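Researcher: For the record, we're logging two predictions in this thread. I'll number them. Prediction 1 follows.
Model: Prediction 1, sequence and structure:
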Amino acid sequence: MKYVVILGDGMADYPIPSLGGKTPLEAARKPVADSLARVSEVGLVKTVPDGMKPGSDVANLSVLGYDPAVYYTGRSPLEAASIGIALKESDLTLRANLVTLSDEADYAQKTMLDYSAGEISTEEAKELVSFLSDKLENEAFSLYAGVSYRHCLVVENGKDGAEFTPPHDISGKKVTSFLPKGENAAAFLALMERSYRLLKDHPVNLARKAAGKNPANSLWLWGAGRKPKLDSFAGKFGKKGTMISAVDLLKGIGKLTGMDVPDVKGATGNYHTNFGEKARIALQSLDSGADFCYIHIEAADECGHQGDLEHKIWSIEQIDEKVLGTLKRELDKRGEAYSLLFLPDHPTPISVKTHVSDPVPYLLYRSGKTGAGAASYCEKAAKNTGVFLPRGPELMKRFLEIPQDKD
């Protein structure tokens, strides 16, 4: 038996007036998902436990079967694992976004114009991070470059207590009330302020502005955490796994849980990604002996954060055709029994441009079997089935056909 999860990050949404009250999932043309829904288990699952923030870190751990209340130690440490940073127990790590802020003289009066600095290229970002490393690093602070706008700051013997706000939560807002605050926050705010002074006239940013692109003119720190301790996926569930993603967060989770984490040519973490190559690599992995593949696709989430309805719908359609459709067709040809699980990790509604904690629709298909199913795959159809899983980690056990009372 082969098991494949297709995780469309942020696909779920709220009804949108311009779509006649439909959500992007309802409006998208997705014949494969809709046909599978009619013969699959369809329902809602709560991936974000009460009291926890609806980040992709928490939600993906939950979908993978790792209870965030037990395993979650912060977002940045998961990304650090992907970058290859060897963390010590005493290290504090933070996500360091390259962002675009407005140009008011007072840092506290600036506005968050773009949490991704125009989805800056990895090559440009590495040049800026290297420049900042030379200027900002000391015996306590170390900067590491990741992918596009996503980077990592490690603080040796770092102290907890500071409160941070994800930049994608404050798009278009003044940063005044969202700056680092609380105990030990002053040093982090000072670093962010200095990064702006260093970056605003850097040649990379001057060239970006000349080309009509958003400059990456500041670091923004958030997602603090400590060295994670995740059980191996094979040890926990008895399956040899592969993690397929463009982003360091999921790659880090994959590495920390002992999965294979192949690079995917053209995988970008946005809607320009190589959808078809992710499916090809998954099939290659399954043919090479993997029992389980987790395919994470960031595109719809990025569109939700940007308020880009057109490309969110388009991304869902690409996932249906080039990932879900390709996998079903090719796995059918192989003749081996398989199961597919299709879902988002959390909603990223166009109307709010950030994550919310609402339960998400899931579709669980087993080859050769039929069920009552649903008329289509979307939020409303999933709710109408009456199937609801109140704890996200239950879904992985259900998917892998592991008794629920077995830890």
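Researcher: Logged. Prediction 2.
Model: Prediction 2, sequence and structure:
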Amino acid sequence: MAGPPRLTLGNVSFAAADGADGQEQGQETRTVRGTLPAGSPDYVYVPVEVPSGVREIRVAYTYDRPSVPAGAQGNALDIGIFDERGTDLGGRGFRGWSGGARTEFFVRADKATPGYVPGPVREGTWHVALGPYTVAPQGLSYELTITLTYGEPGETPTPTPTTTYPPSRAKGRGRAWYRGDCHLHSWYSDGRRTPAEIAALARAAGLDFINTSDHNTYASHAHWATEAGEDLLILLGEEVTTRNGHVVALGTDPGTFVDWRYRARDNRFGHYARQIRQAGGLVVPAHPHATCVGCGWKFGFGFGFEFGAADAVEVWNGPWTPDDEVTLAEWDNTLVAAVGDSRGWLPAMGNSDAHRDPDVVGLPQTVVLADDLTREAIQEGIRAGRSYVAESQNVSLSFTATASGRGELAGIGGRLEVSADSEVTVRLEVTGAPRCTARLITDQGVLLTSDVLPVTGAGVVEWRTTAAYAAYVRAEVRHETAAGPVPGAMAAFTNPIFLGRWRRGG
């Protein structure tokens, strides 16, 4: 599949191993220098002619970081590599990506730098991929140093699902509420924690499941098996980091690679969304209103299985900030479209996006009602919206709507099918949120605000309404606010409960 506009530079050639000019102790090195102007393509490829008999390819790079005028972007250059199978979209030749997290990497049969994929260094044209993330007005000057080491190739490890990847189930509690964090970064991309460190922090945070989501690589997948256990389900995925937004591929098959080298205007996201689902994963746009360059979500959301649709959206990312507030409002505005339409709606979730200290794993965490602690059951619960988001394991919510006098009940993510004028009792129970305030939100906005919860953090809020008055209702628990009408930071929020009957055939 051809990609968006790209730039391929001139070839870097190496002599044969025997008697090569500059070869020392079975090595050859070439240095390449260049300057990329402002407005360069998103990806620039440097072809490297790799002869036979190469054991290892190693690449190091530097680039200049000049001063720039106020308001202008400085230089930032990402890097990765594709092997002799090529650079076409789809990634047959993908061998690794480290973004801007590393200044050098290597690939050989038996081992590779974290973020890169071990395997044979075969003869042919490889490509070092440069990603000029931002370019200063005066341009970006770079230097690549490429070193080939000759010798016996070594053995390539052969992953097997039963011995190399985490199992798709853990010891659950049957149908229960399970806590998870599905957006985490290890040292296999730009994180600073090992899988073992992340797993230990997940257990300390009271999590039942996590999802690996390193940027633009699946290289970590084979390194999580030893960290899983009966108490922790580890799902595998990727944060697909495009120039028009990021998406978490949540719970894909082991070894799944999802390409990222396109923008919204290239009309390719639908293809890769389907690929994520075909690999057993969920499509979850991440931090849609984050302020970093290229982080804003431009692909649209869709519903259900529409072209390019999302399965859920990450409304809360890390500590609560103004961009989360904007995402929450945008997400809430979409809910009314599902009020009388059985085609579906877009559930919300929250994740930590933790990279390194002091990032807190499990701040926030998505709490999912699932039939068991398995990959499929957790995904089904997320997709159905049977979940709420909490700042820590200390906060728990129970949220229901009951048809008065009839006993019919719906929980988070459900629908209470009652006539328009039937009385409904909405009940929120909160624990672990001292000095917080609970709010009930409908399609009209905030319709009930509780008194401040006591220092015990426990409280109950009840409200009576009808489906005619409230098409849906959801709950928020907020910390005390410092000034005026500005709402406090979030402690927890739920997905909605819809009230009223579906419009059949609508």
